[in-house]
Amino acid sequence: MSQARAFSSAAAFPDVVPLIQRLGPAGTLQQGCPMRYGMNPDGESCEFAIVVAGRLAGQGYCQAPHDPAFMEIAKARGFKIMEDAVLTENVPMPSLVKPLGFNVQPMPDSPSVSAVSRAL
């Protein structure tokens, strides 16, 4: 597998930035792990979302959050916190984001959801 890179495809949209992970085995490109972050109403934090293509799930393709561009773009836009709400049944997500410094905490009012956050 080649090294993954994240590309911003919507610099014109200040509140939502989609990033697409592209994989280049043998010089080809394929979409592996689309993600985005969007500004929260407070203007200082952003919510992120990552989607792994079903055919690639569990194969280690979703490395884009490990690409510094994912968080650097958000930080450069002035965001101080990146966060998300993750279903507890989404077992791979904490192992994907914890090594990046994200905190994963159960939400007291909703045991089926965990709060995921990280200072930028």
Question: Would you write up a description of this structure?
Answer:
With 120 residues, the protein is mainly beta. The chain has a domain at 5-84: 3-Layer(aba) Sandwich (Aminopeptidase). The protein contains 2 helices and 8 strands. The protein has helices at 68-76, 92-97, and strands at residues 5-8, 16-23, 30-31, 35-39, 45-50, 81-87, 103-107, 110-119. The chain is globular and about 35 Å long.
Keywords for this structure?
single chain; 120 residues; mainly beta; Aminopeptidase; eight-stranded mixed sheet; 8 strands
Brief synopsis:
With 120 residues, the protein is mainly beta. It has a domain at 5-84: Gcn5-related N-acetyltransferase (GNAT) (Aminopeptidase, 3-Layer(aba) Sandwich).
Number of strands: 8
Tell me the name of the CATH class of the domain at 5-84: Alpha Beta
* Helical content (DSSP H or I, runs of 4+): 10-25%
N-to-C CA distance? 29 Å
Please give the largest β-sheet.
8 strands, mixed
Query: What order do the SSEs take from the amino end to the carboxyl end, as H and E?
Result: EEEEEHEHEE
Coarse structural class: mainly beta
Q: If you compute it from the alpha carbons, what radius of gyration comes out, rounded to the nearest whole angstrom?
A: 14 Å
Total DSSP helices: 2
Low-confidence parts: 1-14
CATH T-level topology of the domain at 5-84: Aminopeptidase
Overall body shape: globular
Q: Give the full name of the CATH homologous superfamily of the domain at 5-84.
A: Gcn5-related N-acetyltransferase (GNAT)
The overall average pLDDT, rounded, is 74
Q: Which architecture of the domain at 5-84 does the CATH hierarchy give at level 2?
A: 3-Layer(aba) Sandwich
- Work out the strand percent: 35-45%
